[in-house]
Amino acid sequence: MAAQTEAVTLLPWLAPYWRQLVAYIAHDRIPQALLLIGAAGIGKDRLSTAFAQRLLCKQPADFACGSCPSCILFTAGTHPDYFVIEPAGQGKRITVDSVRSLISSLSLKPHYARHRIVIFPSAHQMNIAAANSLLKTLEEPDEDTVILMLTDTPSALPATILSRCQRLNVATPPPEVAGKWLREQRVSENLETLLALGHGAPLAALALAKTDVVEQRNRAYAAWRSVFRQLEDPVAIAATWAQLGCEQILDWMLTWAVDMVRLASAADHAALYNPDLRDSLRSLARQLDRAQLFSWLDLLYQSKKLLSGQANRQLVIENLLIRWSGMASARTQQRY
Ligand SMILES: [Zn+2]
Description:
- This protein is of the alpha/beta class and 336 residues long.
- It is built from 16 helices and five strands.
- Zinc ion binds at residues 57-59, 64-65, 68, 70-71.
């Protein structure tokens, strides 16, 4: 896949990891089970796909050639020695059946290449039975099989899987590197905010640039401020937000609260999740005392737990906003 291979050379922050992977090949020490750990949206999938193609290529240089019969099959998505194991759909898990069917395919010799490559693009989505059925393969792999597992949440993988994989930690690039690359992709408006909303991951920020997420977040922030100043009804705002997605709004509120704590306790140059809201968040933080800031943060974390369960989502947000709306006046009453 020429385009994909080229993409790796173009993602500058992946270069050291690419060199590491190619060094495995050069020294004939390719790990049979490799776990790539790193945030969502930094290009782990591109890195692993390019590595798979490089291993299967019949005439590779630094990268796969893109034109040999193996590369052509790879590009067409029909290479018989390349397996991608994913959940059957959004919100689903990787099942034991798909792992068993993989294992039975691996019992045959490679068709075409020296290696067979298996990629789990989101390994943490394996259910326990699937993970257990994979253990023996990880423990006694065929020499020609290379298993690449990708995850942004290694803590969600069973210890039995973690202990059987060699790890490669892929770091989130520094903001200057990510920002430079995003400008090269013609993202200039709201760049800092997009990068913050994408948790520093350039590909995530690029995807967000194609949405109206910054406008949505700004509208939500303005409403949240108005609720604090008791200019808006918390119940009405909660109803609007329920349509936007309670998890998303709660995550934003969490970053605003963490930023307020940072601004209240650290110097002005504290690194923030929302650098564009610095002045506004500072002025809000000044209207609350430390105890209030921390109890607000606690409340948000408790609500996040509630949202992951069976709770009525709109009611959770409503309760939060009612508390938020009373905070400024609570402070005033204390003072006088
Ligand atoms: Zn090739």
